Amino acid sequence: MTLSASAFSPGHLSGYFRPVYGSVPAQTGSLGAGIVIEEGVTATLWPASETQVTVERRDPRTGKTVEVLGSSPPVTHLLSRLGVTARVRTVCTLPIGAGFGLSAAALLSTAIAADALFDLGLSDSGWAGLAHETEITFHTGLGDVAACLGGGRDCRKGPGIDAPIERSFDLTDPLCAIVFSPLPSPGVLVSPDAMEKVTLAFPGRCPRDAEDFFRLSRQFAEKSGLITPEVHMALEVCDRAGVPATMTMLGNGIFACGREAPSLLSPLGDVFLLHPARDGAHLIGVNA
C-alpha cells in the first residue's frame, strides 16, 4: 500500500467579524462570532517529487464528484512553507468560495496530514500557525483557522490562533444554507471601504446565546453593506416565516436555523443541510 495520510477539518459559518491588522500574520486576523460545522474538508496526501493539488467537491447525497479544480495556490504555498512536496487531494461537499470556511479547512487538514506523513514533529500551534499565515497571505480569510481548531458556536476575542475563544454547544435546531453565487473573500478583504463599513457594523460583544447570535449577525449584515439583492430576498422570506437567518460571511448566500428552514428555502435553490460540529480539525490516520 502506498504511504499516505489523511486529516479532516470542519468548516465555519461566520456571523460577524471585525478585522485586525498586525505587523505580522500571527497578529493579523479578526474578532467575531460564528458556528463550526461538520461539513468541512478531508485532505489526503501522498509523497511526491513535486506538489500537485486536486480539489474535489462531491454531492452530499450521492457522493458523486460535481466539481474538480486542478490547483490550489494557498495549499501549494503551505506545503512549500512546510518544506515538503506531495500529491494532495482535498474533498468537500459544500460550494467553494461561498462563505463556509473551506479555504481554512483545506489548509488545516493539509497541514495536519503533512505533519503526520513527513513526521515533521510540529506542535498544534505550529501547523495551525502556518495555516493561518497562509490564509492571511492569500486574503482568503481572517479568523476561520482559529475557529476550526475546535467545535461549537465560537466567539473569537482576538486575532490569530492563540487568542481566547469562547465556545458554546447550545444549538439544538438544524441549520441549512443556500448559495446564489460565489463571493470571493479576497475582493472584499482587501477593500478599505468594505472593511471600514464592516468595522463600524461590528457589535462589539459575544452573543449571549444562539438566538442572540442570529440577532447580532443579522444586524451586522444589514449595517455592513455587504447584502446582495439575492440575499435580501431570501432573508425577507425567512423573516415572514419567523425563521432566524443571516448572510454567510463572506458569501453570496444565507444560513438559517430551524426545522422549517429547508422547505422554506428550497424554492430559491439548492439547500445544503449543515450540522454544528463538536470537534475541531484532526488527523484521520496514516496508511503505510
Can you tag this structure with a few keywords?
Alpha-Beta Plaits, eight-stranded mixed beta sheet, 288 residues, alpha+beta, Ribosomal Protein S5, domain 2, 2 domains
In CATH terms, what is the fold-level topology of the largest domain?
Answer: Ribosomal Protein S5, domain 2
Radius of gyration: 18 Å
Give the CATH level 1 class of the largest domain. Alpha Beta
Reported CATH architecture of the largest domain? 2-Layer Sandwich
Q: Which whole number gives the mean pLDDT? A: 94
Proportion in β-strands: 25-35%
H/E series: EEEEHEHHHEEEHHHHEEHEE
Largest sheet: 8 strands, mixed
Number of domains: 2
Distance between the termini: 6 Å
Unreliable parts: none
Net shape: globular
Number of separate strands: 12
Number of helices: 9
Tell me the helix content: 25-40%
Structural class: alpha+beta
What this model shows, in words?
There is one protein chain. With 288 residues, this protein is an alpha+beta fold. It has 2 domains: 175 residues, Ribosomal Protein S5, domain 2; 105 residues, GHMP kinase, C-terminal domain (Alpha-Beta Plaits), CATH 3.30.70. Helices cover 32% and strands 31% of the residues. It is built from 9 helices and 12 strands. Strands 1, 2, 3, 4, 5, 6, 7 and 12 form an 8-stranded mixed β-sheet that branches. It has a 4-stranded antiparallel β-sheet with strand order 9-10-8-11. Strand 9 and strand 10 form a beta hairpin. The longest helix is centred in the middle third of the chain and has 16 residues. The protein is globular, with a radius of gyration of 18 Å.
